[in-house]
Specification:
The protein is α/β, with parallel strands linked by helices. Helices cover 43% and strands 17% of the residues. Strands 3-2-1-4-5-6-7 form a seven-stranded parallel β-sheet, with helices on both faces. Strand 5 (130-139), helix 5 (152-172) and strand 6 (178-184) form a beta-alpha-beta unit.
């Protein structure tokens, strides 16, 4: 079964590390032309830049997608590179674990701005570029429908993505644009690397398949939602969590 993504154009936010990096590389290896943004320079960015040079179809752009002016600058690059956008993956995000009693308004707003407001800013700016049949994929979290202690701000931001996706799918559907949420479970990223062996075993046991997810597991789901295999799929929350 062919995905037939070659020649399409994509934007991936938070594209330099973890899940975003896997998505960027998976799309590029399918022949998609990708603009991937990152918030600040790091070894992960340098490493991805080297891979991008080899592949030849990835453009890296520094942009904080919480900032309206940065998003505008990001789309200047998109317009320079592409006549249209076929795929938008809103992956940029943050998490912190803070009990409500210690949760400051500043941290609340940081989480909402990073995980939710950024999607509003990116999709609004993308509207003139989105092609008929384009796919917008918002990366949420399985926590959104389950909740987690000491993560009220994170859970609220990810739950907001589900509502935003449902509304956007109805608003943009008449243009043939699909909008979906992808909800990962516990994935092997930098954050997971800090788990103790006991914590890791606990999280592995939560998944029916008995393991943590890999960034490539999420990238595979993105390829499906980006392709015409999902051409009648819109407004859903696709959980990729190993059966939590």
């Amino acid at each position: 079964m062919q995905l037939e993504l070659k020649g399409r154009n994509a934007l991936v936010t938070g594209g330099s590390r973890g899940i975003g990096r896997a998505i960027t590389l998976a799309l590029a290896r399918q022949g998609v032309n990708v603009v991937a943004c990152y918030r600040q320079r790091s070894e992960a960015v340098e490493s991805l830049a080297r891979e991008a040079q080899e592949l030849g179809n990835i453009t890296l752009v520094q942009a904080d997608v919480c900032r309206e002016e940065d998003v505008a600058r990001l789309f200047e690059t998109c317009r320079e590179r592409f006549e249209r956008l076929d795929i938008v993956v809103n992956n940029a995000g943050a998490i912190s674990h803070i009990p409500l009693s210690d949760l400051t308004p500043a941290e609340w707003h940081r989480m909402l701005d990073t995980n939710l407001t950024s999607i509003y800013l990116v999709v609004r700016e993308a509207l003139p570029l989105l092609s008929e049949g384009a796919s917008v994929i918002n990366v949420g979290s399985s926590v959104a429908t389950r909740g987690m202690a000491a993560c009220a701000h994170y859970t609220a931001s990810k739950a907001g993505i589900i509502g935003l996706t449902r509304s956007l799918c109805k608003e943009l559907g008449p243009r043939g644009i699909r909008v979906n949420t992808l909800a990962p479970g516990i994935i092997e990223t930098d954050m997971v690397s800090r788990l103790t062996p006991e914590q890791r075993k606990k999280y592995e046991a939560m998944a029916a398949v008995g393991r943590l997810g890999q960034p490539e597991d999420i990238a595979g789901a993105v390829l499906y939602l980006a392709s015409d295999l999902s051409r009648f799929v819109s407004g859903i929350t696709l959980e990729v969590n190993g059966g939590i």
